[in-house]
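Assess this one:
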Amino acid sequence: MNLNIMERYTLKQAETEAESITDSLKQQYPEKKGSFTKEQYDEAEKKEAEEIYKTAMGTIMDLALYAKIPGAKEIWEHLADEGFSQKVAGKPHLLELRYKMSEKVIKESAETDGVKQAVEIASGFTPHALELVKNAGILNKYIESDFPINANKKQAIMKKLFPELPIDFVPGNIFEEETWVRIEDKLNEGPVAIFTEGFILYTTEAERDQLAKYIKSILEKHGGYFLFEDSMRYHPELNNPNFKTFLARLSQVSQREMNAITQEKMKQEWEDRGFEVERVPENLPLVSEKELPATNDELDVTRKYFQMWKLSLSKKLL
């Protein structure tokens, strides 16, 4: 894996992007008493990007092996030479549920609101474009943005496997305005579905504030929605030991605080940022139910309590 292609951040960018990086450095260098060099920040960011890369690899593996998502197997086979462990990411049923819910909501938005284009942020190696652009034929513009370490490799793979797919790739940091300017340049007129999977889960409140600013700018010009999946992090009321264990592992691997956020707190956050919040029940049948029946008890809990987050601009802003 060549990390030289990944984006490097300035000290200022690293400080503002993730509070967790500073917390990690405090633990690693307690003698520094909160004062770190640019090189130390860069190294912390590099390490975090490596974990993001591994998470993306785990996601496409689970979608290929357990969810049987069209195109996922082909992509995974091209990534197999990366030396990634043959260990599942941990929750294939949740990955499949969020994946299929994203497509369900986007397809419904195409029918009801004329959405013909999508922007997938932190897109990893998912083959959503294959279904939404080619198989279902509901979108005519598809844009993906992720760290260069993911986006550049994904672009090469998709060009080889599915050369007919018209995907626009925008490598970059989605917490920076420059990335969103390049995304905006590629959009057509009309409403857009901006969506992400397995990303909001890791963000801090400050990062969500920053992201909301850029998404609002796009939706003010085009209309449409911002979509992301529900998460066990947003359901502390369930008091599920499996959820707690998994969140603790994610926190350790990602070096990010994964403290619980209530549904009410999350909803209020987005409303305060100028969005209307619609919740869509996550109740789809899954292939992984048969592939991994041991997870079905947890899946039943997920279906009962989880709802997709579908955000639009507040009518007060329109």
User: Anything to note?
Assistant: The chain is about 50% helix and 10% strand.
